[in-house]
Every structure is written in structure tokens, then in C-alpha cells.
């Protein structure tokens, strides 16, 4: 029996969750609207907003779980990777809470937690499986051998998939974060209206920076011919860009599945909320005989529920850290 309080503060979401015996009882997420007008996350503003949000978010998570503070057996927190100032707020809170209540402290790697989000709800994948983790900061194909035995077999050489969505949105004049908006417009558009190039990268690695440049020149040239080109073609441009990003991701995933002879395939991270990716992954699964695993929306983008489930498995292993633990902006598995 174990009840875990988990804290996530790696980027621009302040989140707290309660997990009891592997079940998520609450998962409260405060999204920081302050970054919208800057077109991206401003690190200093993010850490200040975390400071304002963290106590009310934890109080709400405890209340929503219908537990009391004294029921908590351990405190899990995101140690990294992420923005240092943001991580520092969650780490300091977790350390203080653990110290004040004489509780063990559990560090969690944010990218491993995205993968472990698959162990919150049924159906759960069986080991080994492949996980395509696609977020604003990372794009990885992870070979998951066990809960904490993971190997990155492919990753991006430059921009992450979420960045490709967000930077495209910026070029198209859409607000940050642009991924969900491109997804929305793409539903009304033709994915084959415009052809964007697929980068020629060997192996299982990705590259998205060339795509961004080609979209920039494409929009600039077409607007010279017709200043209203963007407004008239927004849905088709979004659908075509989204189609290219997804085909880049799925082609590498297919290659990895063949190379490692694995047919259990999962997606994780903020971009796994994309409806086009979800649909095309299902289609690829039918063609290739895969069993696919897609987390519920609330566990795709940054959330403490995934930190809580990772923390729960670490708690069972008595995998604790001391009070002198410090956050890590870069953190390997
Ligand atoms: O995992 P996440 O919440 O934070 C990071 O750890 O980065 O991922 C955020 C990223 C952003 O780039 C956002 O635009 C993207 O996920 N995203 C989406 C969608 N929802 C979130 N991208 C495409 N389609 C979506 N529906
Ligand atoms: Zn994330």
C-alpha cells in the first residue's frame, strides 16, 4: 500500500497528482497563459508562475483525491530534463514537503515518465516495447525493456517534433503553442495539397530544421504572388505540414519496429495528443500487425500523473534520494 504525491514543474505546466497503489486519484494541471504573447516559454516568467501556482495546485490535488496530507507515503518530483529555474521550484517544494513530513523523496526523469504514462490505464504494453516520445523539447524512439531500463535508439539531430509544429505555427501567424491549432486547422484541410520534403537522414534519427526552412520559403514565395495566400489556404497548409511531420515520425518508427522485431508500439509526449498522428498510427498498426498504445489526453502533455506512476514504481523498489539532490536541466536515462 502506497500513496504518492507527485510534482511536475519542468517547463510551463505546474502540476500535482496523487497516486494510490498504482491508481491516479487526482491530476491537477495549471497551464501558464503568461507565455502566449511572447510566442514561446520565457524561462524566468515560468519559474515565477510555478512559485505562485505550486501550493494551490498541491492543495487541490490532495483535496480532489479525497485524502489527507498524513496519508502520503512518499514525494516524487521531476528532477530533469527541463528548464533549470522551473525544475528548481518543484524540486524545492518536494524536498521541503518530504523533510517537514519525514517522507522519502523520489526523483523522476521527465522523459521516462512520459513513457511510463502507459502504465496508468489499461491496456498496458508488455516489455519490451517501442515508444515514440514526441514533445516540445524531445523526439525519441525508446526501446523500453523494463520500467526503468530504457534505451534511446533514435532521436532528433536538431528541432523536436513539437518545435516543428510550434515554429510552423509562428510562420503561419498562429499563437503559441501552435501544435493544437495546426491539429485543429488540419482537420478541415487536404494533406496532399502541398508537398513538403522528407529529410534524408539514415538510421533511426530525425531532423526537422530543413522542413521549417522549406515552409518559411514556401510561405514567403506564395505570399509574394498573393498577399492573401495564407488566409485562403490555412487549412490545406496545416494539413500538409502535419502530414509531413507525421510521415517522418512513422517512417522511422516502422524502421525501428522492423530492426528490433517488436510489434508493441506506443506514443507519448505532448505531440501524441495530435489527432492526425493518432489516426495514422492506427492505420500503420493495421498494416504492420502492431498492437498500439496511446495514452489518454490528460497524460500526453506535461502532467504530474505520469510522475506519480513513475514515482510509485520507484517507491516499490525503495529507490529514494537524499535531501541534497539538485535539479538537472539535462538528464539522461
Ligand atoms: O510534452 P509536452 O507537454 O511538453 C514538453 O515536455 O515539451 O509537449 C508540448 C508540445 C508543444 O510543442 C505542443 O505544441 C505540442 O506538444 N502539442 C501538439 C498537440 N498538443 C500539444 N502538437 C500537435 N498536435 C497537438 N494536438
Ligand atoms: Zn514533456
Topology, pairings included?
Layout: E1 3-8, E2 13-20, E3 23-31, H1 43-64, E4 74-80, H2 84-100, E5 105-109, H3 110-116, E6 129-134, E7 139-146, E8 149-155, H4 161-171, H5 179-186, H6 209-225, H7 229-260, E9 264-268, H8 275-288, E10 291-293, H9 304-316
Parallel strand pairs: 1-4, 4-5, 6-9, 9-10
Antiparallel strand pairs: 1-2, 2-3, 6-7, 7-8
Helix pairs in contact: 1-2, 3-9, 4-6, 4-7, 5-7, 7-8
Bound molecules: 5'-O-[(R)-(carboxyoxy)(hydroxy)phosphoryl]adenosine (KG4) and zinc ion.
Describe the protein in words:
The chain has 333 residues and is of the alpha/beta class. The chain has 2 domains: 3-115 and 299-316, ATPase, nucleotide binding domain (Nucleotidyltransferase, domain 5), CATH 3.30.420; 124-294, Nucleotidyltransferase, domain 5, CATH 3.30.420. 42% of the residues lie in helices and 19% in strands. It is built from 9 helices and 10 strands. The strands form 2 sheets. It has a 5-stranded mixed sheet, sandwiched between helices. Strand 7 (139-146) and strand 8 (149-155) form a beta hairpin. Helix 4 packs parallel to helix 6 (209-225), helix 5 crosses helix 7 and helix 7 (229-260) packs parallel to helix 8. The radius of gyration is 20 Å and the shape is globular. The mean pLDDT is 96. The structure holds 5'-O-[(R)-(carboxyoxy)(hydroxy)phosphoryl]adenosine and zinc ion. 5'-O-[(R)-(carboxyoxy)(hydroxy)phosphoryl]adenosine binds at residues 11, 135-137, 162, 165-166, 177-180, 183, 269-271, 273-274, 301-302. The site of zinc ion has 6 residues, from helix 3.
